[in-house]
Amino acid sequence: MNDKNANGRNAWDWQTEKKQIPVKEWESQFNWVEEPHVSPDGEQVASIVNSDEAEFSICVNGDVWEDTFEKAWSLKFSPDGRLAVLAANDEEWTVCIDGTEWESRFDYIWGMTFSSDGSYLGAAIQQDGEYGVVVNDEPWESLYENMNHFTLSEQGGSAAVVQVSSMSQGDIDGFAGGLFSLAVNGEPMPQTFMNIWDPAFDSQGKHLAFTIRKNRSDYSIFQVDTAWDQTFQSAWKPAFIENDTSLVAPVRTGGKWYLYKNARPFWSNVYEQLWQIAVHQEKKSIAAIVSDSYGKWTVSQDDRPWTNHADQMITDLSFSEQGDTLCALFKTNGAWTVVANDKPWDLGADKLWKPAMDATGEIVAARFEKQGRYHLAVNGRVAPGDYDMLFDPEISPDGTKILIKSITGGIYSRQVLSVDGLI
Amino acid sequence: MQDSTIENKDSVKTDVIDEAVERGLERLTPERIAGVINQVLAKETGARFKTYIDTCMRCGLCADACSFFLSNDRDPKFSPAAKVKQTLTEMLEKRGNVSKDFLKNMVRIAHTECNVCKRCSMYCPFGIDIAYMMLTVRRICHKLEITPLYIQDTVNSHSATMNQMWVKEDEWIDTLQWQEEDAREEFEDLRIPLDKDGADIMYSVIAPEPKFQAGLIYQTAVIMHAAGVNWTMPSNPGWDNSNMAMFTGDFEISGRLAKAHYEAAADLHVNRIVMGECGHAFRSVYDVGNRWAGWRMPPIELVHAIDFFHELLTTGRIKVKEKYKKSVTLHDPCNVSRGRGLHDKAREVVNLLCDNFIEMTPNKEHNFCCGAGGGVINCGPPYKTTRMINNRVKKEQLEQTGAEVLIAPCHNCHSGLEDITHHYGVDMEIKFFGDIIYEVMEKTIYQGGV
Lengths: 423, 450
Ligand code: SF4
Ligand code: SF4
Known about the structure:
Distance between the termini of chain B: 52 Å
Number of strands of chain B: 8
Strand order of the largest sheet of chain B: 2-1-3-4
Number of domains of chain B: 3
Radius of gyration of chain B: 22 Å
Helix content of chain B: 40-55%
Largest sheet of chain A: 5 strands, antiparallel
Oligomer: heterodimer
Largest sheet of chain B: 4 strands, parallel
Number of helices of chain B: 23
Number of strands of chain A: 44
Bound molecules: iron/sulfur cluster
Mean pLDDT of chain A: 96
Radius of gyration of chain A: 23 Å
C-alpha cells in the first residue's frame, strides 16, 4: 500500500457500523443487471445495466449514469475509487470514468489496468487494424500490427510486446529471425527476438526486464538494455531486486529450475518448478512458488522451502507491506486454504481470494466460498455468518477494524467490524 | 478423388515437398545432426525409453492395430514396430550419424504416418507406447528445426499469441460480444460473461472457433444460458486450450500454454474448466502440458464437453424437446476415449439425444483414429493426399455404419473426417454434440436449484 492509498484509507468511514443498499430492486428497473462491483471503500456498488436493445448504462448505488452506450464491458473500480468502464457508441470505443468519457476513440479497447494508487489507467487499443496502448487518455503515437503483454508501471509508463516487421503467412524463417520488440511508451527497443514474454518494470518504472526466446530451443532474459549471454531451456518472468540494481529470474537448465541473479546462479537449491517471484525490497527477501519434488508445491523464501506443501496448486504469493508476513493460497485435494508464514489455516474452501494484510502483517483477512456460501476468515478463524456474495475485505490503517462488503438477500451491506471481535 | 486414381502411392508419399523440412535439412551439418540426436536420446529419455527399445521382440501383434498399416494393404513398413525401427533404432545403432535422406524420411514417418493415437499400445503384449516413441522422434525434429511448415507456423502462433490461429486479442473479445449479441435473438438477456470473477465454470475453446466457427460459441452460450450455468470466459490469453506444440515436441511452448490456461482459470477463481469438443486440447491440459509444468494432474478440475453435456442432460438442466430423428453413428476421439475413458458417457449422451444410434465397429477405446489427430492434419496441404491414402480404413469403418450423421466430439476429428468423407465421397453429415443438443433442446431456462 503506498502513501496515497494509506492517506485515502484514513479518510474512509471506519465509524459507521452498517450501511445498506437494496441492489435486488435494480432488477425490476432494467432488462438485466450484470454482476455487481464494489468500490474499495465500500461506499459504492455498481453494475452494468441494460434497458433496451443496445442500450447499456451504469447503475451506481441506484443512480444511473446519464450516458448510455451501445456496448459496455469491463466495469472496474480503480484503487482510488473511480469507476471505469469500456464503452462504445457508433462502433467507437472509449473509457468512461465516473460518467465522463475520454476524448480518445478507438476501434477497440481492452485490458484495462490501474496503477496501484489508481492515478493511471491504461488499456490496450486497436485503431484501423493497428495496436498500441492508451494511458490516461493519451494513446501511443506509434501503433503496431500486433501487440501482446501490455503492462503498466506504477508511474504510468507502459510497455508491450509489439510486432515490428511484417510476416507473410507461414514465414517461419522470418518468425525465427525475430519480429518482436518491446515498445516502451510506444517506442520499440532496437533489439528484436523470436519471442518476448512477461515484461516487468522496476519499482521506479525506469527499466524493464523480460523473458526472450532467441531461437526455437534457447531462452534467456533481457535485463534493462541487453540480453543475458547464457541461454536456458526455458525461463519465466524476472523481477528486480536490491533497489532495482539487480534482477532475478527463474530459468530451466538440465530439466530443472534455478533462480539466477544477474545471469549467475543465485539460489543453491534446484527445483522441479519455480515461478511467480515476490520481492520485498527493504527486507531484501525473495520468495517464489516452487515444486521441490515432482507434483508437490510449496513456497521458497530466500531459498528455504516451507514445510507445508500443496498437491495441486499455489497462487497469489505476496508480502505484507512491511515484509513480515508472506502469504499464499494453497490447493490440496480440491480444497483451498491460506498459508501465512508457513502456517496453514483450516478453510477447506472451494474458492479463495488473495488475502488483505495490514502493514505489519499481523492481521490477515481472506474471503472464501464453500458449498455456495461466502465467508470471511481472519488470522485463520472463520468469522460468524455467511453471505450470498462477499467482496475483498479491507483492513483499517491502524489494523483495528475490518471493512466487510457483502450481498445477502439482494441487499448490499457495508459493515465495519472490530478486528478483536473476529480473532 | 477415389484412392484408385492414385497409381503409385509410395511415390505420392515420398515426393512430398515441405519447404520447411527442405530448408531445415539444408542448414544441418553432420555434427549438429549427431549432436542433437545423441543429446535427446541420452539426456531427455530414461528407463521408459530404454525398456521399450529393449523389450520389443518384433512380434508384429501391434501391426493390425494401426490404421496406417491396414490402410496401406498391410505394408510392413507401416507397422508400429517398423516405424520405431526405421527411426529410433537406426539412430541408436548409428549413434546419430544419419544422413539427410534418413532425416527426411524420419520427419515423414513421425509427423504424418503416426497419429500418436496409442491404439497399438493396447495390442502390444508389453504395452509399448509407440506414440511416446514417435513423439521422441518429433522432439528430435524440433531440435533439428525440421518440423513440417504448417504445424510449425501454428506453434509459432501459439508462442506469440498464446493461441494457435494468430487471433488477436481484440478479435477474440469482439467475437464473443458479437456471438452474444446474435444469441440475444433467442434469449434476450443472454450473456457470454467475460472475466466474471468467482463464476463456477470457465469455458475454454480452441482458436479455430473464434476464427472460423464462431457459431459454435453461440450454441454453447445458448446451452449455458438455458442450463442456468454460472459461467465465464476469459478476455485474456489463456482462453485457447489447444496445443500443437505438444505434437511437435516443443515441450517448452506446450508447458507455457498449459500454464497460461490454468492461470486464466485461477485468476477467475472458478471451480472448474469446461472445455469445448476437442480431444487433443484435452490431452494437452490433462496429460501433457500440465505435467511439463509440474502439475501431476490438472490443478483445476477439467471437464471435457462430453462429460459436461452428460451432466446437463442427466440432471435435467437441459431438456430434450424431441429426439434427433436421423440415424447417427459416433466417432470416439482417441484422446478422450483411450485417453480418458469417456466413450460410455458419450453413448449415453447419444442415446439421450437421438432415436437411432448405429455403432461403428470397432468402437470405444478400440476405435480407429480419425486420421487427423496427433498433429497430422496440421502438417497441412502438402500431406493431404497421403493422409487420405492413409485413412482408407476409417472410410470403410464409416461406410459400414450406413448412418446419415456422424457425431465427432472433437475439432481435429471433425476436420479429418470431413476430409475423408469429401475425398472418398461418403454421404455423411458430420456434427458436434453441441450441434445436436442445440437442435433438439427445449429453449427454456432451467428453474431448478444449483
Ligand atoms: S500410435 Fe496409432 S498411428 Fe501410431 S503406430 Fe500406434 S496405432 Fe499406428
Ligand atoms: S506388439 Fe509390442 S513387442 Fe510386438 S512388435 Fe509391436 S511393439 Fe514390439
